[in-house]
Design goal:
It is a single chain. The protein is an alpha/beta fold. It contains 13 helices and eight strands.
Amino acid sequence: MLLDTASLYFRAYFGVPDSVRAPDGSPVNAVRGLLEFITRLVQDHQPDDLVACWDNDWRPQWRVDLIPSYKAHRVAVETETGPDEEETPDTLAPQVPVIADVLDALGIARIGADGYEADDVIGTLTARATGPVDIVTGDRDLFQLVDDARERRVLYPLKGVGTLQVTDESWLHEKYGVDGPGYAQMAVLRGDPSDGLPGVPGIGEKTAVKLLDSFGDLAGVLAAVDDPTAKLTPSQRKRLDEARAYLAVAPTVVAVASDVALPAFDAALPTVPRDPAALEALSLRWGLGNALGRLLATLDK
């Protein structure tokens, strides 16, 4: 089980009241909410291995170099020496280091890679895995990793993590008319305002799927632009032709990496905390008692 950790703690933050606070009054709704999420996921799905995948860089420069608008609307502070700071609610940002410390003390593998997003860590671990993989994320971009033959599916939270949309190839075909790789190509054509991807003007989701269905893939769509006999409307041909520069780089931006160098780690779900003393101190400092207790009891089963 691979967790898109930031996606889940953002959901926890907005789903758990900020009246949930530490003894000193600091909000800990994201921390406790994420612990509750992990407890429920372990109870319901009983994974052998679990990795909390981490955004060491939420907006990698190599993606920005290809498409400068990539996530540009989410930049809060530009920095010259490291990743730009993402726009994050004031009471969430201080909770992120606490989440990292708690996961580390528990012994739940928390893995990131400099210059890459959690999505890329997920893509790499998915490519490496020899058994079934469940990806837990609220980010539809990761639908591109769905692969029934290799038992790769996405568990997409609809309400907390108690109600999950199990995204497999049949669901993708029913909802969008594409498979996993086709989802990424559809996203390139359609664009994604939440990620600052412009897409091809005038081509929405349904048209993108029709084009891919007619011509096979993006390369086939572009070949059709140069084929006067291909069944494209004049406006589609014009817009696709004008978008060539974008279409040359967007697939690289949209595709999650599958070959990121990662540190050595133990993905096995812990049954006891790695650092009980540190965990006890964190629990007392941040008032994690019941939420942490339920997770520890679940891990001990």
